[in-house]
Write a structure and sequence with these properties.
By secondary structure, this protein is α/β, with parallel strands linked by helices. The chain has twelve helices and 13 strands.
């Protein structure tokens, strides 16, 4: 059991996810973090999702099941009940790793200047097998790039939502998701977080996104997500014309741009010498992929 540290609040919003929600719940409560507030908001599921959630009622502080207007309404509802110093949400088909809360709380406890952070992106398949971990840990996440909406598919690539954690103090500066957005409210939230502080990059994975092509909303509604992203970016600073023009030439050009753009950043990594997490200043590329991974994906 993890010693009692900073209080952590996690929200899971779900609807009709009975094939995966148990894995998600296990990944949260299985860490046995003593100062955890777990909130599950079910959008009136018609399958056995709520039955599965209720099996773990003793480990979940709040369970809500009622009709709502979509995923982000459920997340917002849960966030309004959250009281932890550290906050995040985890979708009902994604998972945390066994070390996630321990690492996150250690970093936030040691470094008060860190207001939000992200881990190395990783992915699992429908069977729960890890299929990919980004091979370029400690990538750069320039604050102005996030604020300008440049971390999108056609430029620097999206931030992995399930890997992001933040302090309550940062959430209180923005207070809510933009519920006018049905699909890209996470993207819009990151642009507002970046108005206040920089995103720190951890050199270890914290969560895994479950890829279910043609089934999950992020796949089925990809075009709608992109439209909302464009809507958010309409009033933001445009990227350099050369970068935008090259990136539009396709996946290979996109990867090359990310590998060639290097920026100053602050990386959080573990020091064997000090036996502790340390912050390093470095110049790193935007790309989260190693050259070898990029070549494989290009093929």
């Amino acid at each position: 059991m993890v010693k009692k540290g900073l209080p952590i609040s996690i929200v899971t919003a779900c609807r009709n996810c009975d094939n995966y929600v148990e894995d998600t719940i296990h990944s949260v409560i299985g860490q046995q973090y003593q100062n955890l507030q777990y909130i599950v908001v079910d959008g009136a599921s018609t399958d056995s999702t709520l039955e599965i959630v209720n099996r773990y009622r003793k480990n979940i502080e709040t369970i809500i099941s009622e009709p709502d207007a979509g995923q982000y309404y459920g997340i917002q509802k849960g966030m309004e009940l959250a009281h932890g110093e550290i906050m995040a949400w985890l979708n009902a088909d994604d998972i945390y790793y066994p070390w996630t809360f321990s690492v996150v709380q250690s970093v936030f406890e040691k470094y008060p200047e860190v207001e939000w952070l992200t881990g190395v992106p990783s992915y699992i398949n429908d069977a729960g097998q890890c299929i990919r971990v980004a091979g370029n840990p400690g990538s750069a996440y320039p604050r102005q790039y996030i604020r300008n909406g440049w971390f999108r598919s056609s430029l620097a690539g999206y931030l992995q939502q399930e890997s992001i954690f933040w302090r309550r103090s940062l959430w209180e500066k923005v207070m809510r998701l933009d519920l006018s957005l049905k699909y890209a409210a996470d993207f819009e939230l990151w642009t507002r977080f970046a108005e206040h502080t920089e995103l720190y990059s951890l050199t270890v994975p914290l969560a895994a996104f479950r890829t279910r092509p043609g089934v999950q909303i992020s796949s089925l509604k990809k075009d709608e997500y992109e439209k909302e992203v464009s809507q958010v970016c309409r009033n933001l600073k445009r990227p350099p014309r050369v970068w935008a023009a090259i990136a539009r030439r396709g996946l290979i050009a996109n990867h090359i741009c990310r590998m060639l753009i290097w920026k100053k950043c602050k990386i959080i990594s573990y020091s064997d010498e000090k036996q502790d997490w340390i912050i390093k200043k470095a110049i790193r590329p935007l790309s989260r992929l190693s050259l070898a991974q990029a070549i494989i994906e290009m093929k």
